[in-house]
Amino acid sequence: MSFEELEHTADIRIRVRGATLEELFSEAARALMTIIYGNTSPGTIRHHIEVDADDTISLIQEFLSEILFVSEVEEMVITGADIHLAGNHLTANLTGEPFSRMKHCGGREVKGISYSDLTIRHEEDSYILEVIFDV
C-alpha cells in the first residue's frame, strides 16, 4: 500500500501516492480502511457508488466520506475500489469483506474527512494526496 502516516497533534494525517488519479483515489480508500480496521483481506462483497463534486479536492473528500458511510452502514470493510473518473464525476465498484469484531478491531475510529489541509499535487510520475482524518 502506498501511504504513510504523518505527524499531527490531534487527528490522523496521511500522505497517499498513486500513478494516476484513479489509483490515488483507490489507495486513499484502502488507507482509510487500514487506519480504521487494521487487518483486511480481499472480499467478495460488491457495492457500487457514484459521487459528483465541483473540483478534484471536493471529489476526494466526498468520495472518502462516502467510503466511510458505506463501510459503517453496510458493515463492510472495503478492500478494493475500481475507480473511473470523468471530470468531476466518479464511479467506483467497491469490493470488501463483512465486518468482524474478532478480525477488525486493530484500528482507530475515524469520524470524518477534513477539508483542512486537503491537497492533491502532481509530481513527475505520481499524484500525492495529503488528508486529515478526524478522530
Written overview of the protein:
- This protein is α+β, with helices and mostly antiparallel strands.
- It has a single domain, classed as 3-Layer(bab) Sandwich (Archease, Possible Chaperone, Chain: A, domain 1).
- It is built from two helices and eight strands.
- The strands form two sheets. Strands 1, 2, 6, 7 and 8 form a five-stranded antiparallel β-sheet that branches.
- Strand 7 and strand 8 (126-134) form a beta hairpin.
**How is the quaternary structure best described?**
single chain
Biggest sheet details: 5 strands, antiparallel
What is the CATH topology?
Archease, Possible Chaperone, Chain: A, domain 1
DSSP summary, beta strand count? 8
Overall average pLDDT: 90
How would you concisely characterize the structure shown here?
The chain has 135 residues and is α+β, with helices and mostly antiparallel strands. It is built from 2 helices and 8 strands. It has one domain: Archease, Possible Chaperone, Chain: A, domain 1.
